[in-house]
Write a structure and sequence with these properties.
With 37 residues, this protein is mainly alpha-helical. Helix content is 95%, strand content 0%. It is built from 1 helix and no strands. The chain is rod-shaped.
Length: 37
């Protein structure tokens, strides 16, 4: 039981890190576009 919960929390943490990574990339990309234009 605890193993499945740990696996779920690990997957949630990984997806959160991935989401934050892409959000940062998107933010830098859009800010770079606005600076260039």
């Amino acid at each position: 039981m605890t193993g499945s919960i740990e696996r779920t929390s690990l997957a949630a943490r990984q997806s959160m890190l991935l989401y934050r990574h892409w959000y940062k990339q998107f933010f830098f990309f859009t800010s770079g576009l606005s600076i260039n234009n």
